[in-house]
Amino acid sequence: MSTTTDDHAVDVRDVVRTFGSRNVLDGVTLSVRRGELFGLLGPSGSGKTTLIKLITGIDKADRGTVRMLGERMPQLAMLQRFGYMAQSDALYGELTARENLQFFGSLYGLSGARRNERIHAAMAVVDLTDHLNKPVSAYSGGMKRRLSLAISLLHEPELLVLDEPTVGIDPVLRQSIWAELLQLRDRGTTIILTTHVMDEADKCDRIGLIRDGVLTAVDSPAALKAASGTNTIEEAFIKLGGGVRA
After folding, report:
1. Domain ranges for the chain
2. Cystine design at 9: which of 84, 184, 190, 197 (Cβ 3.0–4.6 Å)?
3. What is the three-class DSSP state of 43?
4. Do residues 221 and 187 lie in contact, with contact meaning Cβ atoms separated by under 8 Å?
5. Angstrom distances, CA of residue 6 to CA of 10, 45, 67
6. Three-class DSSP category at 132
7. What would the CATH number be for the domain defined by 5-242?
8. What's the CA gap between 93 and 136, in Å, rounded?
9. What is the sign, positive or negative, of the torsion defined by CA atoms of 50, 230, 239, 9?
10. Is the CB of residue 59 less than 8 Å from the CB of residue 53?
11. What does each of the 246 residues of the chain score in pLDDT, given as a tens digit?
12. E strand map for the chain
């Protein structure tokens, strides 16, 4: 079934991003449908994070166009419509988790009882409710990742953009977070995430395989395995041009 631009939460067209003499993204075209859980799979340095930064408007393409929810990016007014979890935690260590959440909640236009309600709901998802009043400087690395995820969920955005969301998180909680992501998807939230974890890629509706700034294939996990004649996403990734560089 064909889709129109209105069906797309994100529409990237012929995007090029250059740093120095190197094309970090080289003519990338990609559409992510509304309500889809889309994964970007690729090795370190493949261009995943750069593409995420262009989608969220943190960075700007040298050539090509990026649209999110129908709007040309970058655009500051879009901040309240998407949630973003960066690869590096952007948290205020001298503040408590609650104070961090209150600050970011205010940026998203939340206040009063509604903000307090969303803080408790988001912290419950990442199992940090008992640590709300602890300074973030006392959090472990895994706890900081979980708090960053809670912040991205705070305002119930139409679109979630998550860069390596489960790095440093234990397997049991990772499973719980994925259950929540799948429920969010089922309720209509569009989710774009990057991952190195093959079993996470298998949970996505579609995956984009990226290497050296080029999308080598985009399809469902089952279709990619079928097209490559392989049994696993890892094998499909290698066979469809992903390579094996660490």
Report:
1. 5-242
2. 190
3. coil
4. no
5. 10, 32, 11
6. coil
7. 3.40.50.300
8. 5
9. negative
10. yes
11. 444 456 899 999 999 999 988 889 999 999 999 999 999 998 888 899 999 999 999 999 999 999 999 999 988 888 889 999 988 888 999 999 999 999 999 988 899 999 999 999 999 988 899 999 999 999 998 899 899 999 999 999 999 999 988 887 888 888 888 988 999 999 999 999 998 888 899 999 999 999 999 999 999 999 999 999 999 998 998 888 654 433
12. 8-19, 22-33, 37-41, 63-68, 71-72, 82-85, 159-163, 190-195, 206-211, 214-219
- Tell me the CB-side half-sphere exposure of residue 28, using CA atoms within 13 A: 37
Indicate if the alpha-carbon torsion angle 7, 13, 17, 22 is positive or negative: positive
The torsion of the CA quartet 186, 188, 191, 196, rounded to 10 degrees, works out to 10
CB 205 within 8 A of CB 38: yes
